[in-house]
Amino acid sequence: MGYKLLYFEDTPSESIKSDLEDHGFQIELCDTEDYNETLAKIDRKEYDAILLDYRLSSARGKLDAPAYASYIRTEGKGNISPIFLITNEEDLTIIKKDQACQNLFDCVMTKAELQKQIVRSCAKFNSFIDAYKLVMVSHYDLSSILGVDEKQISDYVDFRMIAALDRFKGENDIFGYVHLIYNHFIRSIGALVGPDVLAARLGITKNSLESIKGMITECEYNGIMSYCYERWWMPMILEFWNTLSSGFPRYLTAEERVEVLKDKLGVELDVAEAGIPEESTEFWTCCIATHFPLDPMDGFICNDRDLYDWEDNHYISMRGALENPNMQKYLSKADQKEVRTYGIKKQ
Amino acid sequence: MIMTEQEIKEQIQTLLSAPEVDYSKFISLSNMLANYDKNNVRFSVDADIITRLGHELVARQETALSELVKNAYDADATKVELIFLDSKSVGGTLIINDNGCGMTREQLINGFMRISSNDKVLRPVSELYRRKRSGRKGIGRFAVQRLGEKLTIITKSSKSDLAYRVNFDWTLYKGNSDITNISNSIDVDNRTDEGTTLIISDLKDVWTEKSVQRVYRYLMGILQPLESDISMDAEKGNPGFYVQASLEENGNKVGIENDAINVKQFAVATIEGCVDNEGVGHYKIVSEQFSIDLEGAIGLSPDDENSRFDLLRNVKIHSYYFLEPCMPKSQKNAVQSYLKMQGGIRLYRNGFRVLPYAEFSNDWLSLDYSMRKRTILPQHGNANFLGFVSINDDSGDFEETSSREGLVENDSFLQLTNFAYRILVTGAVAIAQIRNVKVSSGQKKDKDGNWEVIGLRIKNISHTLDELEKTIEITNEKNISSNNKSKNAIKSIKKEILQLKKLQKEERKRNAEEKVVLRVLSSVGLTIEQFVHEVKYYLNNISSDISFLLNRLSYDADALKRTNILNDNFSTFKSYVSYFDSVVANNINRELRIIEIRDVVNPFINSLKQDALNSGIELEDAVYNGFNLYCKPMHPSEWTSILFNFYTNSKKAIKRAAAENGLIFIECGKENGFIYLEFSDNGDGIPVEIEDKIFEEFFTTSTQKDIRKLDSQNEITGSGLGLSIVRDIVKSYKGRVMVVNPKRGLSTCLRVEIPALSDNEIMNL
Predict the structure, then answer these.
(1) What is the ipTM of this complex?
(2) Are residues A15 and B542, on separate chains, in Cβ contact within 8 Å?
């Protein structure tokens, strides 16, 4: 039996309901016409997660999603469950900027996204529900939550992140705990890396990464959300590298790294290429705009989101910044100037 | 050595009793003696003043040389020759030779040798050709001292049988000696032709071909290249003034070409006119640049081109017409500053220039006044013209005022200004009409209304009123004939006003039509907004229903096929709605933003790629030539609207062409300070004959084919408003939109140009 979602919706919703049901969820629809009845439903806790439509006041309802979500997060009597927000608005930044929406939702997506990527969306919902349950059952045991042993936790995970997680643990705030791991550990570059960055750091193309994935299964991340996010522990990758070569890969060119890999692993691998030929191939990250591998020395720091100390900076390449002018606002003033004078002769 | 008064007196006496008087010594002694004058004191001048005047008043060698050339001009020379001998190193020689009137011994002594003489102030106009003499201060000649250490003057005047040669050595003019104490030798020379030659030796500067060229260009700028042209027509007038320069090094002579700007060549048109000896007026406007060759008659009354100028006979007008936007960039400043000083219509009476007409700031034809009033928009100020009016006045209708400054403003003169003004304005308007077409590049000019015509009418009325006023003034003295005249004038005013009324009515109608269009459009906009809002919700639901059906119907081939079609149709519909949605969302934000073209084009392509594919069209990724393609602040939804209009037009054109593989291609870049966007497709193309119509309101090609074939299934019916909206948007940002030659073998290419942000503005964003 799949998880049960309490779905708040004030407009016809049979389509989404059917879609979710097709993917294994049980759906209890809840129109928000009667406020008290709605709250009572929430407090009965007969569900695994809550799915909210953003706009709940367009028909007969009186309050929009944030009001219900903040009730659940704060006043609710022990309501511990993920809350997902779906919306008709095309532009999610409006919601993300809305102060009333901060720190309420585990995941925000448009209805179009939900329906287009229904499989992935459902996997995400399930992962969150699983994560909440695991945190609860394990009493905030980080090693089982991240899928590694105690020693590895203290070796690999930044102490400041552990301290921040301990605060949420002290407040028994599962949402805050999962939120931090999800946004600032899994969906971030640091102890964990995704396939783009991993390929860049190994100096190989993403296709070639497929051919050596089998050899680095031990480095894979198996903690919460790993069902939807393919991640590797970077410290383990480096340990793996050390078994092949004594040199540190950071200051090797992509060719040199691939030489080592080919030599020791005996596989054919393609060397990753830089976005602009004259750029360095001592890759260590990816351009967040073009996804080309990038040597941070060649890139500009892109402050597109707030980062904690344990997260690596986001970088954007010159090409990425030029081709995506809307990203230029995340650069420092000096870097903006450099991008904008590209091609203009300096007086 | 200090001498007593008595000693000096004695020395003078011995000096005067000697057979040959040493004048220099005499002067210095008498100066010394004068110092003992107990009752008076006198100024004396230090010889160093020459250096001061030469060096400090004339700092640059160009100016120094031009002072000397000006002197030749003032002396009524027609030709000046500059020869630089071995001047590529310091110490060369410069010979300035003119064929002017030269100087007699008296003129030399009282004129040339007298510092700060007021000859030119007393005689501001040259004797022979009545040239306005340029020098006033009487110190121009010391420019010579700036150029070289030594000077020899050889001069011969027609008033004297003898030629003279004077030698100067400027190095003697040092401080601490009195200027009168320094003597310069004068001899009789064997020169026979009139004129003056200055030989400046021990040149202080190096003169290379390049620097001579520069000076030469400078000289041509201060002279009046048109003078000769004009006076050819004006018969006995000024024969012109030519400057030649050459450089001689070790006997090799190199002539310096006149590469100075010839202002005439930048004229866009020539405007000519005349009143013959029967009072009939004609005009002729010729412009190679705009292929105009226009001839016509012009009458006393603006409404009757056959009416005669009763007071004018044998009047000619000839003028070059200049337009700032048509000048080459490199010389624009030079030409404009020249015209600012020299422009205007000069007046020649019986071959002689009458001042002050067309002097700087003289506006005798009210051209500048009329420009300021802006009743007629095309440029027609004094700085736009360079020309003259010549009158042959045997009967003496045009009388010079007693002060010799200008003509008496009588009826004849009034008719003359009326005639000249109207011809010039006719020319300016004719050029403007043709030019406006070119402004929108190959498109016919869009209707800016009747404002220019209205302006001209108003001008005519005011002219007639002027004449009427004049007539009334003299009514008291004269009688019935002037009475008739005023009646005629009133009649013509009435006629003008009637015309104006008609034009105004037309304008009002046009404005009303435009208002209706705007109202319709705004309500259409609101409806779309409402519709999009309502419909949006169902889109996602319907598509999820369709995908469900697609899954379930996999066993039923027919139903699956049909559902697939439904799916395609629906996704087309969806992309339209989402596009309108973004337009509506953008419209909420009314602020103007600085936009990088990628930020509007990329989202556009992404959102319509699928829709295009559903119609069998490949919407290619855009090609960007260059980075940082920032436009001047614009409203983002306006770009959306431009692109969407182009897109729907292309889609229709591709459908009409029934092409197998539709293709739409966008290219953007920066050129001449504009961001351009070229939108190309391989549709059925735009026939040349309608190229200029497609940007007009309510013009649509959708009805070109058989109208019965149109139905809601295969055609988005065009309102014919699309491209006119594009034009309006683009125009409001001072941009342009036009049909251009397509690249890559495609059939249509529309190009939009919007002013770009300057490099400086980009850096300081």
Answers:
(1) 0.72
(2) yes
